[in-house]
Amino acid sequence: HALEADLRKAVEREEFELHYQPLYDLSQQRICGFEALVRWNHPTRGRVPPLEFIPLAEEVGLVVDIGRWVLRRACRDAVYWPEDIKVAVNVSAIQFTDSDLPGDVAAALEEAGLTAGRLEIEITESVLMENLDEALPILHVLKQRGIRIGMDDFGTGYSSLSYLRRFPFDKIKIDKSFVNGIVEDKEAFAIMRAIILLGDALGMRVTVEGVETAEQMALLRSEACDEIQGYHISPPRPAVEVPYLLSQLPEHE
Ligand code: G
Ligand code: G
Ligand code: NA
Ligand code: MN
């Protein structure tokens, strides 16, 4: 596999880069954090999307090294941001089973000098599904140390609801597929509303992903939705643009 060989070199040569997408607080009307999204700038192929190389990296065991790099890079970037701005990092299931995730997280925070409370770990349901017995104690350790834990792509799996009882997530991120049609379609809106109320009733912060229009944002503002993410606020942007985004986006109404 040619891509696999290149991926190995990419780890050594640090061909990765993090882009950041704002998380926008609806009541404060300002950015409250950024999600780190990894990019691979291949020397000849150009940019390879994460949906292509993350699954491959998981298969061949490279996702642990890449994940460690992402954690370190994200903490080192975030330490230069204002103190009330959090950084969210995606973590793969394999990082729970094949590495010392709490150790890697602690090292990344310590090396950067970042407070644990500024870091949020995003996990998808498949992470939990694949190894619940191993993942749950690790999540508890991270949470005890003050790291926030969010359930990503909420609603896309068939067992999301049962996981809400098994672990006290700080946040759920409602998958972008649920935003489609909320403005035009009563049923779509009813489902969105019910999921938001569920998260809210369980004391979790609720984020809606994939918000692309002002109408969607206005509708969510009238609900118990805490924050939104999506192209309407901003697509993921390179780290150097974070200060610009922080200075521009309060006007984003
Ligand atoms: O940014 P983009 O929409 O292309 O991301 C596609 C997918 O890749 C998303 O589902 C996202 O969760 C995943 N992804 C992005 N960055 C990382 C990362 O650093 N680690 C892991 N495990 N997944 C990531
Ligand atoms: O799985 P995860 O939630 O981490 O995926 C994040 C991905 O969603 C990123 O690749 C990002 O590029 C993409 N994304 C972010 N905002 C929007 C949006 O408003 N619409 C769509 N269609 N995709 C988005
Ligand atoms: Na995510
Ligand atoms: Mn998501």
UniProtKB/TrEMBL annotation:
In terms of domain of life, where is this protein from? Bacteria
EAL domain location is 1-250
Q: What is this protein called?
A: Diguanylate cyclase
Naturally occurring in which organism (per UniProt): Rhizobium grahamii CCGE 502
**What stretch of the complete protein does the chain hold?**
368 to 620 of 625
